[in-house]
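COMPLEX REQUEST
Ligand: zinc ion
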Amino acid sequence: MTRFFQILFFSFCFLLQAQNLKIIQKPIGYSKERMKLSLDYMKEHHNLIQKTPNITPKIIVLHYTAGGTIESNFRYFNNLYLENQRATLKKQSSLNVSAHFLVDRDGTVYQLVDPELFARHTIGLNHCAIGVENIGSKSQPLTDKQVEANAELVKYLVKKYPVEYLIGHSEYGVFRNSELWKETDPKYFTGKEDPGSDFMKKVREKLRDLKLKSQP
Ligand SMILES: [Zn+2]
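STATUS: Structure written out below.
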């Protein structure tokens, strides 16, 4: 009898895990001013002239925040303008960086921006990329719960949008010179190491069936 309940319990946990992707809505301010700065960025960097900063998501880019908490990162992304210290980025546009999702170390998923709206997180690909940030850093590796949550989130997004690619931010350079790469300044490129190859490997293992591409 004990064995029966054990199996029942584990099946129940599995079902919970498989079906319970809970996304907590925690939107950053997408004001008229953010819309204007996003449209300017799309025009200047991607040669895209639009009336609204809408995107058609084709790529999911996973990141880590390099520190902080949900609250501190939320406050940071909620700022409309980039801080002065980030001179390389600021020279290109004063629009602040942000992301569509933010995943806490316990796997809780927060949505900050509608996935069909522009967010600045990956040079060259922002016009078609959903950005997922994870609380962590090189010295604070991402957790198994974050692996699980990212995999579930990707599954959900692939069902909803025409996503074909999944990459880690550090891998984005392979899209240079591809059709998807839209950056008018050929010199605008920064080296990245987030979220780490170990994390990407673990997430991809959980998503093998989806056959998402990692390069153009
Ligand atoms: Zn990143």
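REMARKS: The helical segments are 2-19, 32-46, 70-78, 87-92, 144-160, 197-206. Residues 3-210 form a domain with the Lysozyme-like fold (CATH 3.40.80.10).
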